[in-house]
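Appendix B, record 7
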Amino acid sequence: MYSIKANAKVNIYLKITGHKDGYHTLNSRFMRVENLYDTISFIPSKCDSFTLEGFDSVELKNNTIYKAFVALSDYSGNLELLEFFYNHKVVVDKQIPTMAGLGGGSSNAGAFLRLANEVCNLGISVEKLAKIGSSIGADVPFFVYNYPSANVSGYGDIIEHFDEEPLNIELFFPDMGCDTALVYKIFKENLLSSIMPYKYIHWQKMSSVAIIEEANNDASELNDLYRAALITYPTLANIAPKDYLFSGSGSSFFRIKD
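Structure tokens (predicted):
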């Protein structure tokens, strides 16, 4: 059996910088959450086709792990990869909540790509693997590189390692989820015209703690999508714990513990 951790992430900050070719561009600091992760395992099993267990409500063709398998197979053309998954099933121990802004689906795809590349001896560089990941989802390249902390920009495809110690992150999960596509749609319709894409560029050089302090621990100042999420899901305003920040497109909140 082969296994890998697929860690969650939080956005220390997330600023929208534009909209081009149907997609938003961003400037953000992603930080890996060390104590929250799914576990992806390749378990010996005779399979008639690619077999994925651990998801009850997601059709196989819509699952990011399956999309990663297809993308990797198309890129490599490696018959040993196909043979491996005729003899192994993929089992996921799911711990990261869905629709929570923690990158669970993207993390699954990124971790799958890394593990499959290793166990099948594909020899694909991390740069090329990240490019494959970008065809699956905007956050996937970050999880391919698997940095503890990184500045992320462009469409989510420009990943720059940021050298800082992982922080002790405490998470809060409301009993609801946020639809990422809908939150971005509401942002475009209501808030895109008010962005200031260059005002926060200096945050890329600051530590995560310093960024939060400069923003006075203000969730709306740190994350442009929080305002869009509040328009889309007004009840979030009553759910948010005091002094917690908003990750991604939601619905989870986090704070840095001393």
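Remarks on this record: The chain has ten helices and nine strands. The mean pLDDT is 95.
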